[in-house]
Amino acid sequence: MFQLILFSILNGLVYGMLLFMLSSGLTLIFGMMGVLNFAHASFYMLGAYIAFTLGLRLGFWPALLIAPIVVGLLGALVERHGLRRVHRFGHIAELIFTFGVAIVIEEIVQLVWGRPAKSYQVPAVLDFPLFRAFGSSFPAYKAFMLVISVAIFAFIFVILTRTRAGLIIQASLTHSQMVAMLGHNVPRVFMVVFGIGSALAAVAGVIAGPVLGTFPGMAQVLGSIVFVVVVIGGLGSLTGAFVASLLIGIVQTFAVAMDVSVGGTLAAVGVHVTGGGVLHDLWKVTIAQVAPILPYVLLVLTLILRPTGLFGTRET
Amino acid sequence: MSTRHGAVVFVVITALVVGLASSATPADPIKVAYIDPLSGPFAATGENGLNQFKYAADAINKSGGVLGRQLELVPLDNKVSPQESLIQLKKVIGDGIPFVFQGNSSGVAHAISDAVQKHNERNAGNRVLYLNYSAVDPALTNEKCHFWHFRFDAHADMKMAALTDVIATNKSIKKMYIIGQDYSFGKAVADAAVSMLGKKRPDIQIVGNELHPIGKVKDFSPYVQKIVASGADAVITGNWGADMIALAKAANDGGLKVPFYTYYAASDGVTAAIGAAGIDRIRLVHESHPGNPNAPKAFSDYITGYRKLHPQNDINQPRIQTALNMLAQAIKRAGTTDVDKVAAALEGAEFTNLSGDQLVMRRDDHQLQMPIYISVHTNKNIKHDLDASGFGLSLENKIERDKATQPTTCKMQRPT
Amino acid sequence: MSSPAATRSLALPGVARAVRARRLGPWLTAAVVLLILPQLVRTGTALAVMNQMGIAVIFALSFNMLLGQGGMLSFGHAVYFGIGGFIAAHLLNLAGRGTLWLPVPLLPLVGGLGGLAFAVLFGSFSTRRAGTVFSMISLGVAELMAASSLIFDRFFGGEEGITTNRSKAPLLLGLEFTRDRQVYYLIAFWLFVAALAMYAFSRTPVGRMANAVRDNPERAEFVGYSQHRVRLASFCAAGFFAGIAGGLFAINYEILTAENMGLNASGVVLLMAYIGGIGYFVGPIIGAVIFTFLQSMLSDYTGMWLFYLGILFLITVLFVPMGLAGILMLHAPAWRSRRLGRLVVPYFVTGTLGLLAVVGGIGLLELLHFVAVSEAAGATKRLFWVAVAPRTLTPWLGFAALAVAGALGVRWTAPRAAAAFAEASN
Question: Among residues B285, B286, B271, which one has the least CA distance to residue B378?
Fold first, then answer.
């Protein structure tokens, strides 16, 4: 029991922090530019693939440094030459554009690296169990993932709140026109934020690639969950993204561990449902089987009941 | 342009066209379609399967082909999607290809089998024969059987019967955990395990029966934690492809050291993922000699020849060679590629495979009858390793053909 | 179409007849074309593709009711398509067993009603807000339904999906549907009826108000219409027609899986509608036909067809947001003044050069793909019906030269084509 709880919390934290790395960039971009970047998870995928290829020649650590820079530059380019041009057609057009970019990036990945999954390995220096407890062990690499995610969060926090550039970015979040009138190049600020957001997604890809698999569908798999996190946390709010990421990460990990049926759980809370009927399948299935849809149920509920999310202040 | 110029141009063009059209074309090849995953989480399985088909077809073509014609493989990507497979099947029918091989997955197999039966009933003129070389949901040769479906791999119940016989002899197992993919095959494995263990070892407690979405779970750590928490002494799983690789990795990372009884925990990346952690612990039930120790010479040569062409891949589905050769023989016996006549020739056909086993295609349900092998993952005395990893499979038990047979509920309806 | 001048002149009977002919003309032509098409293309594969196109056209038209006419970008429209299909498949199975009298021709209607029911259910909260929030809710609903398919095994059939058999249903007027050709005529019939109905809808007050709500929701409210109710009406109508397409899908393929409701299917219909042109009624029709055609044709030759379509989509979004229909409509003044003939030569020249550039570009991409992905050392590849050896330098230089020459040629001749266009449109 303790083993299950301890390891579920640890695994949930690792997964949650990974989601945070992805969603922080997305929520910042949305907060600044009002565009929900469909291609964000594609930059995550590119990060993993580029790191894999660089890693074959240079090793894991140089790749960890170089891949996010490459992807960040790519993101800035996409913003400069694509998004900016579409911006005047409205938010719908921007959404459609980023959707197209996501498709094209996925196809480019298949074009250059092929369809089968890449065997992107954990670096040998981190490939050992960190500790054993209650008959199960926790890999050191996952601890490394946790450390990197926390470090990045701290880094972003410090930059945004303590440096001049960060203050300008924060100001552009809510008062972009005033900031422009004060003489700052706001389009360039947008481009830099987009680039940094993409670089963050790439870092997530570099470290998650060995654990979650490096294959052309990885953007789609994580992309939907990241949207859920961003919406639940509140569009534009970094704290919201942090809380929602951990929430989703831990809920999903714990849900897998629970073999109680949905009907049984409801009965424990005092709601009795009779077998049979149209929803019969729903009552007899276990929480573990329902785990994949829980984030989406939360998403739809949030959008209906509180469209600004937990910590957000704006809807669109 | 004057009329004379026009006439000259016309003559020249006609001559070119006629010349090209009548350039000696070799005798029509016999086309054989292969509808399996060539992309997605199971691409490695599909691509390796395709290479094994090509290897087997080349051998047949080198020794003269079939009825003087060469075999030509037409690969199509089914993306492990029943939808996509039916679209490919429509293409196959439209192109007039009479023979279709498919094996991954059972979900796709159901869709194809159903579509083939409907199409054949409606179009007596251009029928298609469905040769199932790897989809082992027992339903396909029981309640869903029909005349134009033939299966060349032992189905899930045959394999589970053998596996549970071996488990029954292991008295140290008291708690069993079953985990599988949530689709027809995964469910069939779970059902068979529960019922057969219940008969042979009622004292074994099933402490977990888990179905996870197929091809979607990337990190199996939460599932591994559950297995550890349940106190299971052993695990049964039918997982294959990316799911088996991920499960093996998570089990290694999580320090899970109990025996695994599996259907597909070898090759296509799985053996490399298991590595040293799985020695003498991971077992596999399958349909031909594992290659070690002391494989029959014909088989050993076949494997070595394949390795020269594909240094990273293995002959992990020798039934491919069996299936293609049995088809070739049936076509020769029927003297034609007419599907009904070939099917009639294939029913009841006998074949000796590379492992030296005598196989027979049972008329009642079109299920190939064969002995079943159980092997263990190890690195001792491995002449033929898997995934070029130094690890491979070593034979532990063989259940003979007449012991491995299972009854059928099929009521075969033959075309008049 | 209905300016005051036209209304006045309708008083003259000759003019009234001419206007009616202009309005009915396209529909009559369409009906005739649909009827004779199977006679012109007789191969089995072509028939299968045409059936696929017919279903795609209905689906794309229903999607455009949301996007083009209502300004609502839905990432989950395939949910209603899929649900309509599943309900139709289940009822067809019941009909096959004799429990229900439901002949095949009426099945799309049943699918439509199923789509409508779920559109009412999900639309009630989805349509409260427009814009990004609407899109996000539609995404959430789509993912929710796709994930639910694993839970509601009996309805969705799990991984294997639900199969059905159109030969077992009771017959209406003795009409059988065992052959693809017969299914084609059924699809063509429903295509005509659905397209007519959707066009009529866009002309009703609700349809017109949907346009108004798209352009300026606040002002529409001041005129007296609730933006929520108007959007909901559009949403339900779109769901109904998507369900009809789903029912036809069930009849044509006799299998439905959870994939039919998923994000990929919704993404594809967005591509189709946008490439065709969302601002015009015929846009989605053009987009669906071209997309389906390219998808079936290209996928035989290259695994990268979705990449090419994605690039086409991006180009449309960035440079030609009006879509193919928009480009065609730009030439309407030239047609009316009968000066279209002047454009043939400049367009042909620029077009051929552009085609050469595209061939060169595609060649280079295919070579890159082959080299990056295949393991064999000296293999050859068939590109544009010619066998090339991708690991030697010649094909690369050849295609690069084509691409560069074509691009330069286009740059050179484009101004002349543009000038010709400007002149013809005056």
Answer: B271
The residue of C154, C268, C307, C317 whose CB has the most chain A CBs within 10 angstroms, and thus the best one to mutate to test that interface, is C317
Q: Touching check for B309 and chain C: CB below 8 Å?
A: no
Rounded to two decimals, the pTM is 0.88
Query: How far apart, in whole angstroms, are the C-alpha atoms of residue C139 and residue C126?
Result: 10
* Chain C closest-CA separation from residue B293 CA (Å): 31
What ipTM, to 2 d.p.? 0.86
- CB neighbour class for B398 (10 Å; exposed up to 12, middle 13-18, buried from 19): middle
Helix ranges, B105-183 (H) = 106-122, 156-169
Is the Cβ–Cβ distance between C38 and C50 less than 8 Å? Answer: yes
Residues C160, B115: C-beta atoms closer than 8 Å: no
3-state secondary structure of C404: helix
Residue C249: closest C-alpha in chain B: B83
CA distance B379 to B372: 22
Report the C-alpha gap between C319 and B37 in whole angstroms: 37
> Cβ–Cβ of B118/C167 closer than 8 Å?
yes
Distance linking the first and last C-alpha atoms of chain A: 44
Phi then psi dihedrals of residue C279, to 5 deg: -85, -5
| CB atoms A4 and B226 under 8 Å | yes
Q: Give the Cα separation of B253 and B271 in Å (integer).
A: 15
Q: What is the pLDDT of residue B3?
A: 45
| Closest-CA residue of chain C to B182 | C159
Q: A217: which 2 tokens?
A: 């569908």
> B110 vs C43: CB contact, 8 Å cut-off?
no
Token code pair at residue C403: 């691409």
| Inter-residue contact A213 to B218 (CB < 8 Å) | yes
Interface test with A, best of B175, B253, B268, B274 (most A CBs within 10 A): B253
Tokens 């299998």 found at: C255
Share above pLDDT 70 across residues of chain A, in percent, rounded to a whole number? 91
DSSP state of C151: T
**C222 burial via Cβ count (<10 Å: 0-12, 13-18, 19+):** exposed
Rounded percentage of chain A residues whose pLDDT exceeds 90:
31
